[in-house]
Amino acid sequence: MNPYRLSWSHGEAVVLSTAAVLADCRFDLPGGAFKPYARAPWMGTVHDPSIIGHLRELGGDFVCVPFGAGPAEPIGPQKWASLMTEPPLLPIHGPAGDAEWSLLSHDSSSVTLSLDYPDESIIQRLERTVSGRDGAPALDSSLTIYPRYGGRISVGLHPILRLPDAPGALRLEAEFDFGLVHPRHIHDGQDDEFSALDDVPLPDGRVDLGRVPLGRPNVSVQLCGMRGPLRALFVEDRAGVELDWDRSILPCLQIWCTDRGINGPPWHGQYRGIGVEPMASAFDFNTSLSVRPNPINKRGIPTAVELAEGDPLTISHSVTAFALSEAEMRVG
């Protein structure tokens, strides 16, 4: 594993060769240093190759091609469980989230890494660039997918923000067409749809997912048809970030919030973070489910990207930090 350090006018960051993970990032704001990304407490200490690369070095951002992690057995309501006819592909979230990437270029404020895919994959190669934006507290990233042949595949980005200690101290703002609760949380006959983050139906009651942490170990939802960027306001830090991306390519956002809710190695009930994951996928299910008709794409929301042979596809995203205004501090 090789670390690549970046420094620019408004911050510093570290990107690793392992899974091309953004391992650390600091934004310099007028009020001081601001670090919005999650960082696993075990980073740099896990060397077991049976543990996937992005979990060994679970930092603040990586890419997933294909986007998908399981489950191994059908779960949830029949409308979803009946589609889970194949086991998850390994490694989960594709080679991008596991392998050692190769260095293409690196200067003081930017790094570009590449990864060749197996010969049987629809993907020939990926390139990922992460750059500090000169003159701004912002980090710009791009993922270029080089197809081996034409077809469809689920794709996602995987930023993870840190969870504050105080309940509700992180406020999330997002506009979307409709939201769905992850099938792992619900059963047939239970309400799974919502139109605002402050009214998310869970089996034991409705919750405000716009104010986290919730005091719950695990919550996952998918926001379908995103109409703009996500804003995350860290009230105690008097700072926030805006996550923006190519929504014409990745029309959804999965929110995955875990608050010491995962056991087993390397988690051991320690990890706290909230994934805010732009994607073209049906939740984090096997990509074979995402490319077939499913309850999301039947409503006109793509759950995979279309690739054409010889036509590279570039997906950009950015995270921009800002100080909270007095009005923003008073809201909520």
From TrEMBL:
Q: Which domain of life is it from?
A: Bacteria
Gene3D superfamilies for this protein: 2.70.98.10
Know the name of this protein?
Answer: Aldose 1-epimerase
- This chain's source organism reads Devosia nitrariae
